[in-house]
Amino acid sequence: MSAAAETLVRVDDLKMHFPIYAGLLRRQVGAVKAVDGVSFDIYRGETLGLVGESGCGKSTTGRAVLRLYDPTDGSVEFEGGDIAALSEGDMRRMRPRMQMIFQDPQASLNPRMTVGSIISEPLIEHRDMTVQERRERVKELLNAVGLNPDYINRYPHEFSGGQRQRIGIARALALDPDFIVCDEPIAALDVSIQAQVVNLLEDLQQERGLTYLFISHDLSMVRHIADRVAVMYLGKIMELAPRDALFATPRHPYTQALLSAVPVADPDIEANRQRIILTGDVPSPSKPPEGCVFCTRCPLAKKLNDEKCFTTAPQWREIEPGQFVACHFAEMTNDPAVLAEGTPDTV
Asked: I want to staple 1 with a disulfide (CB 3.0 to 4.6 A). Which of 5, 59, 324, 342 is the partner?
């Protein structure tokens, strides 16, 4: 994306902590830090990919950005206005411009409602339209997502998983939004259907000028659809960079470990390339490490054994133009031999 690209969404130091209660009096004894100080921008018309392991806070980030959760701290600006500070009435008027496609197309559609009722529900809530106008709009949306408009009176159980996800996409498009959070929209689908849904999202983006936050743990799919990629771990963003730069020269050890796990189609490369095997478990988000949240599993931290990794949180800094990283020793990761030498965590 151009440096002069217009910023549509700006997230600054976003935190989403869930309280932990215990005892007879149900007193708060701690908090799960699902999202802990996340910052990023999303430019108008781009797709920002958000990747990471299950449980790292990706979906919570997406929901907090749309204020489906009220953030614990931080700001979420949409076209310069902080939606985290809006009243319920003002937020309701803002809702049509921001929508979400949910992960499970089976659970996100009401089984007792017809497809027409599901897609027209946001139109009833936010638009002053006659019954006939809503019906025509629903048929138009079904056609836009590649479904037969005559399916308007069918129920969700009559459709396949891919078709149900298209219904969810049609519902998200009903109010002509500017920004859509795609929360792992292909995770519950067969591989053969995933490409169809992703191609549909790309076509709709071109036709309607949509902006996406695309949440996924499928790095190969993110590489296909995203313009920039943010890598998340334990509630924090480890690295953010343009797609090509991130896949060609990852600078954070966690990003390198993630990419080393992605299979390569070339058997010669696959047979000789280095893989980074992370040991240990992900720490509890209620008690994250004191320094860098990745220090307990980081091969570089183990090799250097520098106190800074374990006691001081790294600063979020720009290491290359457009490439940001949170690592004290990111400059050292540019040498592919650094992680291999003397480290049992590589094979």
From this structure: 5
